[in-house]
């Protein structure tokens, strides 16, 4: 009977080891995905940072990169702890999982609060930034960001194309210019001089609305990914606790 009990115990421990090892592989992949999203956000969407007074956008990208790196390291520690059956490493792994889980909850709350502030800031500052800094000396990053924004989101002006009428750049022009060339559906040199509805983003809406939708969609994606990872973490913590109880006392 004792031999059978030992076999059952050993079989349960082996199953837990493989389940925890599989969890760590999935956790490691999730960390890599979060890291990749952070790098993509920083590289592909960094132009929009110059349109915002706050560092929310760049900070969120760096947080994603850091979170992804921490998750990857945690996954590696979990694999080592599982394969070597070391209780000390399992405790460290469990603590790291718990810390990441708590940080995710805090980050989620802060992201929601910060988004509300960012939304107000976006509405207040985007129009002023576009009208006063576009094509001005020393504001090349803003000009590039505005052009990319209007082309990528198929919009013209902060609220609509008429916002460009009061811009410093257009008012200082020697000839009549209506909108930037990036407002054109088919961009070409000086196409913004012709205010023709068929080639200007007039009815598609302003860039504020499009940028708000983009940021909100990114938050939804991050929220969904965070929820999924958090669920995996709870499962991982459960497996870790069970394996810890089943292992013999670590001689080290």
Automatic annotation (TrEMBL):
Subcellular location: Cell membrane; Membrane
This protein's UniProt keywords: Cell membrane, Glycoprotein, Lipoprotein, Membrane, Palmitate, Transmembrane, Transmembrane helix, Ubl conjugation
SUPFAM superfamilies recorded: Tetraspanin
Pfam families with a match to the protein in the record: Tetraspanin (PF00335)
GO biological process terms held by the UniProt record: cell migration
Residues passing through the membrane, by range: 21-42, 62-83, 90-115, 219-244
InterPro entries named in the record: Tetraspanin/Peripherin (IPR018499), Tetraspanin_animals (IPR000301), Tetraspanin_EC2_sf (IPR008952)
Membrane topology value: Multi-pass membrane protein
Main location: membrane
Coiled coil stretches, renumbered: none
Gene Ontology terms: cellular component: plasma membrane
Domain of life assignment: Eukaryota
Subunit and interaction comment: Interacts with integrins ITGA3:ITGB1, ITGA5:ITGB1, ITGA3:ITGB1 and ITGA6:ITGB4 and with CD9 and CD181. Interacts (via the second extracellular domain) with integrin ITGAV:ITGB3. Interacts with ITGA3; this interaction modulates ITGA3 glycosylation pattern. Interacts with F11R. Interacts with RAC1 and CDC42; these interactions mediate physical association of RAC1 and CDC42 with integrin adhesion receptor complexes.
PANTHER family: CD151 ANTIGEN (PTHR19282:SF487), TETRASPANIN (PTHR19282)
Family indicated by similarity: Belongs to the tetraspanin (TM4SF) family.
Name the record gives this protein: Tetraspanin
Species assigned in the record: Seriola lalandi dorsalis
